[in-house]
From TrEMBL:
Entries under SUPFAM superfamilies matching the protein: Domain of the SRP/SRP receptor G-proteins, P-loop containing nucleoside triphosphate hydrolases, Signal peptide-binding domain
Reaction catalyzed: GTP + H2O = GDP + phosphate + H(+)
Name assigned to this protein: Signal recognition particle 54 kDa protein
Protein family per UniProt: Belongs to the GTP-binding SRP family. SRP54 subfamily.
C-alpha cells in the first residue's frame, strides 16, 4: 500500500501544474491502493469525496508541500473512519461484567479470549473463561489448556451439547465466585450461516452480555464488511478485535468492521502467544496502514510543538532505545505538566490509548502520580537500569513498603514499564533529523 500511495503522491508533486485532472489521477491511484489493502469500496469512495472537499487546489498550486497536504488529508480521513466517537462499554474492576466473543471459526476467538483475560488478570482483575463452543470437537480442551497456562478459572463440558446451557451455568458459577470479568467463548462456522447466528442470538439472550466482541481475522479482506454486519444483526456487537495483524496483513478490514458495527476496535492480536496483544490506537494503526511508520504522527507533532533547540537531546534519548524507569518517570512528569512536550508524549504509541484513555483523564493522572510515588522509593541504580531482572522480590517489597503501597501495585507499575520499554525499543536507531531538515520525515 505504502508504495503505491507514495508513488501517486510523488507523481503529483512532480507535476508542474496541479489542476483538477492531476488531483483526480492521484486520488484514483490512491483509491486503487486502498482497495488492494482491503478497505471497503464504499469507504474508499466516501473518502475520495471528502478529500476533494478538504484539499484546496489553490493551496496545492501555491507551492505548499503537496505530498504532505494530501497525505495528511488521507491520514485524517482514515483516522475519522476508525474513531466512532463513542468508547465501547468498559468493564469496571470489582464489578461483574459478562463479555461474549463472536466470530467465524478460525478467526482467533479462543486465543483472543485468553489474551483478553490474561491482559486483565495482570492488572489485578479476576477473570474467568466459559467455553460455549460445543460445535467443534476439541474446543473445550483448547480453552482449558490456554486457561490452565494462564492460571485462569474456566468452565465447560465434554458431554453437554447445548451451548446455552453451559454458558448459563458457567456465568452463574463465576458470578457466585465474584469474578469481575466473565468471558464467554462461542463457536464459529467456516461460513456465515443461519444456524450460527441463531445460536449467537440465543446465547446472548440467555447470558445477557454487557459487551459482545466481534473477533476478525485481518486477512479476510473485502468480506470483512458483510461478515461484521451479519454478526451485528444477530447480536449487538459493541467492540471489535482484529487478529493476526503482525504479518503482512493489509489491515483495511478493520475499517470495514468499524463501519459495519459502528463500534470501535479495542485490541489487536499480534501473534499466537498470550501476551501478543495490544491496546488499539488509531493513529499508529493508520500510520502503519499507510506505510508511514508508527512514529510519523509523533514526529510531526514534535516538529510542531517542541522548540528546535530542545529537539536534539530529546530525540537522542529516543533513538538510543534504552528505556529506563527514569525516562519513564521524566515522561510522566511531562505528561502531568501537560506542557507542549506532555502533549507530544500523549501521542506516543502506548502512552495515549492505554495509559490515558480519552474521557478518563482524572483516573489516568491519579495512576501516573501513584506510579511516580513508587518510583520515588527506588534507588538510582534501579531507575537507571534497563535490566528488569534487577527487580527481584525483595526490592519490590522494599519499594512497596517505602511508598506505602501494595506489592501488586509495584508489580503493576513494572508491567507498565515493560510494556512501554517494548514499544520504545522499536524507536532504536531512529534517524535524527538535522536542524531545519524536516523534509527527511
Ligand atoms: P477460533 O476458532 O475463532 O476460536 O480461533 P482460534 O483461537 O482457535 O485460533 C485459530 C488459529 O489462529 C490458531 O492457530 C491461533 O493460534 C491463531 N491465532 C489467533 N490469534 C492470532 C494472532 O493474533 N496472530 C497469529 N499469528 N495467530 C493467531
Ligand atoms: Mg474457538
Amino acid at each position: 500500500l505504502s508504495g503505491s500511495i507514495s508513488r501517486a503522491l510523488q507523481q503529483m508533486s512532480n507535476a508542474t501544474i496541479i489542476d483538477e485532472k492531476v488531483l483526480n489521477e492521484c486520488l484514483n491511484e490512491i483509491t486503487r491502493a486502498l482497495l488492494k489493502a482491503d478497505v471497503h469500496f464504499d469507504l474508499v469512495k466516501k473518502m475520495q469525496i471528502n478529500i476533494k472537499k478538504i484539499v484546496n487546489l489553490d493551496d496545492l498550486a501555491a507551492g505548499h508541500n503537496k505530498r504532505r497536504i494530501i497525505q495528511q488529508a488521507i491520514f485524517n480521513e482514515l483516522c475519522n473512519m476508525l474513531d466512532t466517537g463513542k468508547p465501547s462499554f468498559t468493564p469496571k474492576k470489582g464489578k461483574t461484567s459478562v463479555i461474549m466473543f463472536v466470530g467465524l471459526q478460525g478467526s482467533g476467538k479462543t486465543t483472543t479470549c485468553t489474551k483478553y483475560a490474561y491482559y486483565h488478570q495482570k492488572k489485578g482483575w479476576k477473570p474467568a473463561l466459559v467455553c460455549a463452543d460445543t460445535f467443534r470437537a476439541g474446543a473445550f480442551d483448547q480453552l482449558k489448556q490456554n486457561a490452565t497456562k494462564a492460571k485462569i478459572p474456566f468452565y465447560g463440558s465434554y458431554m453437554e451439547s447445548d451451548p446455552v446451557k453451559i454458558a448459563v451455568e458457567g456465568v452463574e458459577r463465576f458470578k457466585k465466585e465474584n469474578c469481575d470479568l466473565i468471558i464467554v467463548d462461542t463457536s464459529g462456522r467456516h461460513q456465515q450461516e443461519a444456524a450460527l447466528f441463531e445460536e449467537m442470538r440465543q446465547l446472548a439472550e440467555a447470558t445477557k452480555p454487557d459487551l459482545v466482541i466481534f473477533v476478525m481475522d485481518s486477512s479476510i479482506g473485502q468480506a470483512a464488511f458483510s461478515q461484521a454486519q451479519a454478526f451485528n444483526r444477530s447480536v449487538s456487537v459493541g467492540a471489535v478485535i482484529v487478529t493476526k495483524t503482525e504479518g503482512a496483513a493489509k489491515g483495511g478490514g478493520a475499517l470495514s468492521a468499524v463501519a459495519a458495527t459502528k463500534s470501535p476496535v479495542i485490541f489487536l492480536g499480534t501473534g499466537e502467544h498470550m501476551d501478543e496483544f495490544e491496546v488499539f490506537d488509531v493513529k499508529p494503526f493508520v500510520s502503519r496502514l499507510l506505510g508511514m511508520g508508527d512514529w510519523s504522527g509523533f514526529m510531526d507533532k514534535i516538529h510542531e510543538v517542541v522548540p528546535m533547540d530542545q529537539q536534539p537531546e530529546l530525540l537522542q534519548k529516543l533513538s538510543e532505545g534504552n528505556f529506563t524507569l527514569r525516562i519513564m518517570y521524566e515522561q510522566f512528569q511531562n505528561i502531568l505538566n501537560m506542557g507542549p512536550i506532555g502533549q507530544v508524549f500523549s501521542m506516543l504509541p502506548g502512552f495515549s490509548a492505554e495509559l490515558m484513555p480519552k474521557g478518563r483523564e482524572k483516573e489516568s493522572q491519579a495512576k501516573i502520580k501513584r506510579y511516580m510515588t513508587m518510583m520515588d522509593s527506588m534507588t538510582n541504580e534501579e531507575l537507571d537500569s534497563t535490566n528488569p531482572k534487577l527487580m527481584n522480590e525483595s526490592r519490590i517489597m522494599r519499594i512497596a513498603r517505602g511508598s506505602g503501597r501494595q506489592v501488586r501495585d509495584v508489580m503493576e507499575m513494572l508491567e507498565e514499564y515493560k510494556r512501554l520499554a517494548k514499544i520504545w525499543s522499536k524507536m532504536k536507531g531512529l534517524k535524527i533529523p538535522k536542524k531545519g531538515d524536516m523534509s527527511a520525515l
